[in-house]
Amino acid sequence: MKALVWFTQDLRTHDQVSLSKACAENQSVQAVYCLDPSWFEYTEFGFKKTEKFRARFLLETLTDLQQSLKKIHIPLEVVFQKPEDFISNFIQQNAINRVYKMTEWTAEEQKVFHQVRKNTIQEVQWIQNYDQFLFHPEDIPFKTIAQLPEVFTEFRKKTEQLSRVRAALPEPKMPIENYREPQGKIPSLTDLGFEDFETHPNSSVPFQGGQTHALNRLDHYLFETQNLSRYKQTRNGLIDADYSSKLSLWLANGSISARTIYEAVQKFERTVTKTEDTYWLIFELLWRDYFKYISLKHHNKIFYLGGILSRAYSWKQNPQKFKQWAEGKTPEPFVNANMMELRNTGFMSNRGRQNVASFWAKQWQEDWRIGAAYFESMLIDYDVHSNYGNWIYNAGVGNDPRDRMFNIKRQAEMYDPEQNFQKLWLNQS
Ligand SMILES: Cc1cc2nc3c(=O)[nH]c(=O)nc-3n(C[C@H](O)[C@H](O)[C@H](O)COP(=O)(O)OP(=O)(O)OC[C@H]3O[C@@H](n4cnc5c(N)ncnc54)[C@H](O)[C@@H]3O)c2cc1C
């Protein structure tokens, strides 16, 4: 049988379910990735759906993936075309019998998948696998997704107690005869419509995309520096790379799996130390899972103005306010510094994200979806479930049982008492 692995947000060779299954079940395996031109178009809000930071990181990731796949004798074709236009033709031209792909359920991804299937005239087996979770959907202790608790703590406690994380899969390999050179070249940043740019010297994420860099970062954060043993105490930091793991960059496009991180933390706990700090990284990965489950449960409601609560507020849509917020020109210096960091680097700390989101949605009562769409555009680590899940949570239309509004001045005093973070960013353009 001839297989195609259609890569999406699972851009790795280690612990990759679709890839491992395809290699185990077929005589021939090829791989494709489509850079959809619509990702680089302007949204209704006047900014691009994907900005240069994530675009560059993605290209680095694909280059790394192509090299890793070559080592296991699988050719990866990367095209700057819609999957709807490319994949059905590829299936036909290469007489593919089986297509392996990560299961995705959000609206845009579903639409693409259905269209690709519709365009495929040939008889093909479509094999989809959940591969973005720490705890697999078949293993969580709730009979149906509808029974999933709305409150994080309940989800976490039951899941931790009653479920187990599946073992990470080893990297598979095909025989050398399986390999042929890919036909096309990976597009450049210019091909995608951006100019090359330098990483900002103040960036707390001066990293490259790709599995190789993800695994290096994991090793650095855990074993080289042992920063994991201080994680809970430092994770609310704002400056430099090591106050938190920064693994979100690679988790978001799947160049590392949550299971691989889990196993590394377990090894650290066995060989170095096991404390509340080491546990806390797993705790945060559970938040990541939780937002994926919330999205799986509520589907498109995570994108609705009223969120999963269908709650009506009097939201405003003031373009001038948006400009002020995005350009870091609000009356709140702490918000401004965070927005300047995002604008210059494609990253913002978790503390920063909570504050600027609360300011936008709660203080200014501006349409939270515009803030979320701006994050989607700018963030290197943009992940549909984490972004929209956190935004509805912070905007009061999601799962925050306490519906809090941040006191920005107090937050700045607590987390930036010497104003070092504000000084770092407020004089930038
Ligand atoms: C408004 C808002 C929007 C956000 N948008 C995104 C997004 O698009 N993509 C994204 O990955 N994270 C998002 N987050 C969550 C969080 O801010 C980032 O995951 C975190 O800052 C990434 O840095 P880190 O890897 O160093 O995190 P660490 O503190 O080292 O945490 C380890 C990992 O745990 C997960 N995690 C931590 N906090 C959260 C959280 N609140 N929700 C979900 N997962 C979490 C991430 O995968 C992270 O890599 C958002 C948070 C807010 C408040």
Explain what this protein looks like in three dimensions.
The chain has 429 residues and is an alpha/beta fold. The chain folds into three domains: 1-131, HUPs (Rossmann fold), CATH 3.40.50.620; 132-165 and 210-298, Serine Threonine Protein Phosphatase 5, Tetratricopeptide repeat (Alpha Horseshoe); 304-426, DNA Cyclobutane Dipyrimidine Photolyase, subunit A, domain 3, CATH 1.10.579.10. It contains 17 helices and five strands. It has helices at 17-25, 52-71, 83-93, 107-119, 152-162, 211-224, 231-234, 248-252, 258-271, 276-298, 319-326, 333-345, 350-363, 368-378, 384-395, 408-415, 420-426, and strands spanning 2-6, 28-34, 76-79, 98-102, 125-129. It has a five-stranded parallel β-sheet, sandwiched between helices. Helix 1 (17-25) links the parallel strand 1 (2-6) and strand 2 (28-34).
Blueprint of the fold:
Layout: E1 2-6, H1 17-25, E2 28-34, H2 52-71, E3 76-79, H3 83-93, E4 98-102, H4 107-119, E5 125-129, H5 152-162, H6 211-224, H7 231-234, H8 248-252, H9 258-271, H10 276-298, H11 319-326, H12 333-345, H13 350-363, H14 368-378, H15 384-395, H16 408-415, H17 420-426
Parallel strand pairs: 1-2, 1-4, 2-3, 4-5
Helix pairs in contact: 3-4, 6-9, 9-10, 10-15, 12-13, 12-17, 13-15, 14-15
The structure holds flavin-adenine dinucleotide.
